[in-house]
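Sharing a chain and its predicted structure for anyone who wants a worked example. Both blocks are below, sequence first, tokens second.
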Amino acid sequence: MPLPVGDPSLLLIDDDKPFLQRMSRALDQRGFRVSTAESIASGLSALEDHAPAHAVVDMRLSDGNGLDVVAALQRKRPDARVIVLTGYGNIATAVTAVKLGAIDYLAKPADADDVTAALLRCSGIKVELPDNPMSADRVRWEHIQRVYELCDRNVSETARRLSMHRRTLQRILAKRAPR
């Protein structure tokens, strides 16, 4: 994996604290100089101090939409390379992210290798297909787990948000993750 050339500064914004810490450590080990933020407000504040050369921004944060940070960073530093991460991907938000200046849009769970590859990839180069992609069952299970965590592990609320019967959700949560 190539190291960042030039300015290695990177702003990582995500409201999932364990993910933020793991990704921060991993990107630091790959040669980036990482600063972190857990909200839109703290991300925008970090941009006022120093506009980084790279950014990895979660789409949905507790205090708003991560695309606000993407737009602010592009105004302050147009050459910045921004990746948008999301657990709720759809075509409309991907198009909006790219129009605002993001160079890539990755679905969670993305690992540090995926993020680093996307940040350092030259424009015009096609992304290689993964050797062993997640199965559809695994992607579904990951999405259910994320919504479950966002609902503070409340089964009834999670079932309501997923338009699913509560008992069906309980059965899914009781099983192991599919491969």
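Comments welcome. The first strand starts at residue 9 and ends at 13.
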